[in-house]
Design a protein that fits this description.
- InterPro entries: Fumarylacetoacetase-like_C, Fumarylacetoacetase_C_sf.
- It is an enzyme of class 3 (hydrolase).
- This is Fumarylpyruvate hydrolase.
- Keywords: Hydrolase, Metal-binding, Pyruvate.
- This protein has 228 residues and is of the alpha+beta class.
- It has one domain: Fumarylacetoacetate hydrolase, domain 2 (Alpha-Beta Complex), CATH 3.90.850.
- Helices cover 15% and strands 33% of the residues.
- The protein is built from five helices and 18 strands.
- The N and C termini lie far apart (44 Å).
Length: 228
């Protein structure tokens, strides 16, 4: 059997609440503007238009509780989200069958170099420079469906240094989890290990070195991340 020309990277895995087992990550999809109030604050029409997605890299997910402020940016924003972890997938998944592919849910922050993202938007270029940089998705452990079910509502709140910045509810999602899975599967073949970030409510804003972000969602505990 042929060898590798250099040692392959370690697989990206996420912790699972209540067990020592790890969840191996395959891909990371993120839905954009999935809360009406956030769409408005970003200058867009909140009407229910077809969803759109961008991707982060698997190794952008970081459960360490630390977020290193990235270089080449002076405006980095927090976006508090719930993520969905899949244990199976496929193509053209029906909406009514979509939740059967979900292993669990967790808390995540879609950290965004807003200044660089804005520059890319103006030039009609992809967003990766603003979204898919190193450790740009601080996250907490996965809560298995067997423990938390499939939440359709629940308060989502983010504090920065004790001050509430984002305060919404999962029930405010424009596109619900089954719809996101079904829509994505029409364009990509989903598989075990895929992670979907489900969008953020209004109130996104900048962070600075030394800030402490505290995110809570009913039933999922708290995610605390310090900006270094």
């Amino acid at each position: 059997m042929p060898g590798f020309v250099f040692a392959p990277p370690e697989p990206v895995t996420l912790p699972i609440k209540g067990t020592d087992a790890r969840f191996p990550v395959r891909r990371v999809y993120c839905v954009g503007r999935n809360y009406a109030a956030h769409a408005v604050e970003m200058g867009h029409d909140p009407d229910r238009e077809p969803p759109f997605f961008f991707q982060k890299n698997p190794d952008n997910l970081d459960p360490s509780g630390r977020f290193p402020y990235p270089s080449r940016s002076s405006e980095v924003h927090h976006e508090a989200e719930v993520y969905v972890a899949l244990h199976s997938g496929g193509s053209d998944i029906a909406v009514e069958e979509a939740l059967g592919h979900v292993y669990g849910y967790g808390l995540a922050l879609d950290m965004t170099r807003r200044d660089l993202q804005g520059q890319m938007k103006k030039m009609g270029r992809p967003w990766e420079i603003g979204k898919a940089f190193e450790r740009s998705a601080p996250c907490g452990p996965i809560h298995p469906v067997a423990e938390v079910g499939h939440p359709e509502a629940g308060r989502l709140r983010l504090k920065v240094n004790g001050e509430i910045r984002q305060d919404g509810d999962l029930g405010q999602m424009i596109w619900k989890v089954p719809e996101m899975i079904a829509y994505l599967s029409a364009y990509f073949e989903l598989a075990a290990g895929d992670v979907i970030l489900t969008g953020t409510p209004a109130g996104v804003g900048p962070v600075r070195r030394g800030d402490v972000m505290e995110m809570e969602v009913d039933g999922f505990g708290q995610l605390t991340v310090r900006v270094d």
